[in-house]
Amino acid sequence: MNASMLTKQIIDLEKTRENYNKACTAYKMRIVICAGTGCMANGAMSIYNKFREVIAERGLKADVVLEKEEHHHVAHNDKHAAAGESQTVNNNFLLVQSGCQGFCQMGPLVTIYPQNILYTKVKVSDVEEIVDRTLQKGESVDRLLYECHDTKHHVKDMNKIPFYERQKRIMLKLCGHINVNDVDEYIANGGYFMARKAVLEMTAEQICKEILDSGLRGRGGGGFPTGRKWELTRINESDTKYIICNGDEGDPGAFMDRCVMEGNPHSVLEGMIIAAMAVNASIGMVYVRTEYPLAVQRLKKAIKSARENGILGENIFGSGKKFDIEVIEGAGAFVCGEETALIASIEGHRGMPTMKPPFPAEKGLFGKPTVINNVETLATIPVILEMGAAKYRELGTETSKGTKTFALTGHVANTGLIEVPFGTTLREIVGDIGGGVLDDEGNNCGVDFKAVQIGGPSGGCLTKEHLDLPLDYDNLRNVGAMVGSGGLVVMNQNTCMIQIARFFMQFTQNESCGKCVVCREGTRQMLALLDEIIEGRADAQTLELLEELAETVRIGSLCGLGKTAPNPVLSTLEYFRDEYNAHVFDKRCPTGNCEALKTYRIIAEKCKACGLCAKKCPVEAIEGAKGVPYVIDAEKCIKCGACINACRFNAVVKG
Amino acid sequence: MGNDRNTFSIKFDKVCEVLDKHECSPNKLIAILQEIQEEYKYLPEDIMTYIATALGISPGVVFGVATFYSHFALEPKGKYVIKVCDGTACHVRKSKDILQTLEKELGLSGKKKTSDDMLFTLETVACLGACGLAPVVVVNDEVHGSMTKEKTIELISRIREQERQEMNK
Ligand SMILES: Cc1cc2nc3c(=O)[nH]c(=O)nc-3n(C[C@H](O)[C@H](O)[C@H](O)COP(=O)(O)O)c2cc1C
Ligand code: FES
Question: Tell me, what's the ipTM?
Fold first, then answer.
């Protein structure tokens, strides 16, 4: 190693933090526009541009950090320093784009600091008023504040909004708060201090022990203790070792990893650096699914600025140690989230799982010892070092320590990304944070949900009887569900559970890699059996076969995909047996969702006995007389729907 | 047909460039195919064979990888690739209705995915990671959230109108 390499600019974290904080005192307000995928889709960029325009029009001054400007990084550093020195400028605003703030449903979001004012559902036409009243006069624009659905009360301080107030955002703390494209902001908030500590002050054993002591378990689904995984990799001697960050997040209905990669990419890199120090690895890779272009772009940018600051590269933090990270884009295969398949995919093959052992800790990527961790697991690592293992352990339950993010979606008032300690109950998540369940018309019905699906295609359903169950790895497993990656899909009373089971079966059947017969053919046959039930062709034997097959697929499959594929079916069979029975024996779908089982009937109270429906019926299935409500003969009915269209009193219903 | 020969060699110039960038390493096959697809919008068969030869692996291996991953297309796609999310969150919020509306509007079906004028390709995907906005439709890389039948029809008319204007220019 030559001298110039060693003297390459190594960032002074303290100085950067100090400069940045000094610069911040020069800003009167910091305006944060959420630029997560959700808010972007609702027009966050036009709002951002409008802010720039209006601020300029009013003759105000604002510093902006543009995402597209490749060279902004250096210029921006200078800018912070300059603003810090000239303390006299005190009418400046800082306009930044952040990653996802989690409250996607309410987007586009605009937050004003230091007042913590959160404006929801902001439109371009609102921007002038915000600039004139909030920026210039310090008043709030009440109609844009979040309104509590029960008290109708406008909440000014974002931290007082129930959605945020009931959460414990420690891993997500900076997500949606900092500018994703500015490494200085990350550092000013304590970022990379723990990576530096791991590089310069801790031994590999110490790091492994700290993480083991924290009780951290993998957030990617399996829940394997991370400290143990690292220790197993550490003790394997090898010239090369790899750290892989699993950002494949294929579970439909889950998006926490996307939010972290988009909203705080540096925290993922920092976790990887610490992992590298714990096992003496020199190469890191982030495997991101192709559906997340923004995550790829932001990670690449973050890696670039980390390199420029000597945080990644040949000589990290001037220690003489080498560690660099590269981003790899997936190509669209759910099974590649499985660690051995993911390794095969990085090596350029079809992403098919292989038998374990050997585990990646012994023989991973290119046959070398490899640590594979989930995005959230890695982003939690710096938090643990900062808090200390003992303090981190205080959060959560006996067997599951710390916090977990969940993607709360489906029929719930506040959809979005949340972080809560393990042990939080569904009542708190759905009722308090989620703000209640919505029916098909959008009415709020409190916690009256039918089921909450957790863990995606590998998981199961929770029902109202589980409202007060403390959610953690083991409790969930005991009731036939799993934490999985953390997708929580709330379903209202109008959801057909057989169709949900079919939905997941279709998913696993599509995604089965085809390597083992039991998984490939078993899932296909299970799907066919579910179709029989939904289409009214099933009998008692169908149910028996379905259960038997579920067991075979569970036992006989090679990887986690097949092993867990029957879970959604088994879980709905357990909790919604009556609904299966209604489909199979009564040929009736209680929620009226299954087309083939729908029947038409006339509500006697509403029928005016006009006879129009009977006239329109092509098969003469409707009978009645003047003054007597008409009746549909189910045997004759061909379910064409002509009667519904004909009735002017909404007396004909389908279901 | 001199002209043809010309475009043919240009075609392979780009392939060579991508191959060089990845040092003809078979381990980089997926990254290579991704870049090729970015250029051509799909993976032409002759190019896959060419890549196989250059990497010293059998065309079957390249073909096997290309068919394994859903991101790779073996047939040309329309100018606008419309992806309807059928992830769990979108599914329970009735993404099927959106899909049916689009199929009707574009005259496409489960088997026929690309319109004859090569303007639209309709696909379903399992979760785009924007579940907070379910149901979600993505046109090329642009995300459209909280879709309804009406919004879907409007979206298509907007694209068609835009195309008409461009044609007239
Ligand atoms: C079919 C299947 C899909 C998986 N998908 C993911 C995924 O998308 N993201 C992830 O982090 N782990 C996924 N896993 C789990 C990984 O195999 C692995 O256990 C995990 O990445 C380890 O990281 P952790 O210990 O930090 O959780 C999947 C497993 C299976 C069987
Ligand atoms: S389920 Fe549609 S975006 Fe996730």
Answer: 0.90
